[in-house]
Design goal:
Strands 1, 2, 3, 4, 5, 6, 7, 8, 9 and 10 form a 10-stranded mixed β-sheet that branches. About 45% of the residues are buried. The protein is globular, with a radius of gyration of 21 Å. It is an alpha/beta fold and about 325 residues long. About 0% of the residues have low confidence. The longest helix has 22 residues. Helix 2 crosses helix 9. It folds into 2 domains: about 190 residues, 3-Layer(aba) Sandwich (D-Maltodextrin-Binding Protein, domain 2), CATH 3.40.190; about 100 residues, 3-Layer(aba) Sandwich (D-Maltodextrin-Binding Protein, domain 2), CATH 3.40.190. Keywords: Signal. Pfam families: TctC. This is Tripartite tricarboxylate transporter substrate binding protein.
Amino acid sequence: MIRKLFGALALALAFTAAQAQPFPSKPIHLIVPFPPGGGTDILSRLVATKLTEVAKWTVVPDNRAGAGGTIGIAEAARAPHTGYEMVMGQKDNMVVAPWLYKGLSYDPTKDLVAVAHVAYTPVVIVTRNESKFKTLKDVVTAARAAPDSITYGSPGNGTTIHLAGEIFGRAADVKLRHVPYKGSNPAMMDVLAGNVDLMVSSLPSAMAQIKSGKLRALAVTSAKRSSSLPEVPTVAESGYKGFDVSTWYGLFMPAGTPKDIVATVNTEVNKLLASPEMKAAIIAQGAEPESMTTEQFGTLLKTDYLAWRDIVKASGATIE
């Protein structure tokens, strides 16, 4: 009996000592739920690098791609809630996918906690520079002349980017043919090769190719022009008033992660976002940095989660 009591006491002391260690006392595993090279990957690695440089943390990105980003999110949702597991979520897999995928294993509003908003970005409609399409009007004219003949690639079924193309087709009253890929990079390669006519992409994924002159940006889908591409018109300016589709990126941890750890990560990320160097780095990738409290980010998650239920229902899209 005494031996058991001493054993329990030893375990309790060990647990208390572990809790007393400053956070983080070991590397943080950052799940990136899309393949290398896309917008989520670019921002994840930027945040990981800067946290390592500035906060002196060790943050290790790990690409776990598949099923529109839902595989990586599901892994994060069932990870230990110790503070050493987090994921770069985005609107696609946090608020759109739950209404598209049948039997999804996680509820983003219950199984994960919003930690730190990082950035938002408009979606951009691009074509290769040699394309006959010079404006969005050219695309609509061609699509009306030959319905379902104009193809557009996206990073995958069920992403905000995929649905941005569907929503635009409805706004313009044309039928475009969606070609889903497993991530932004393969879609990018095919639009550059001319295998698909257009690509609907996050700006971070497409920015390098736009800047190099290999891709032509036809329009951004946000309500206002991007500060990274001020010369590119919005879809609304191209004749479709009120059109506004953008996406956001942020860090999440498994539900039950200690609140003090969540607060610490939020504070450090917001410090990064306040620095001119980090702001410039994010804008250079085509995104717009935006810091939030954990409460503000949690409210954004819940508000968008309910809003996209209606958008997905109206689109008629489902994924088995």
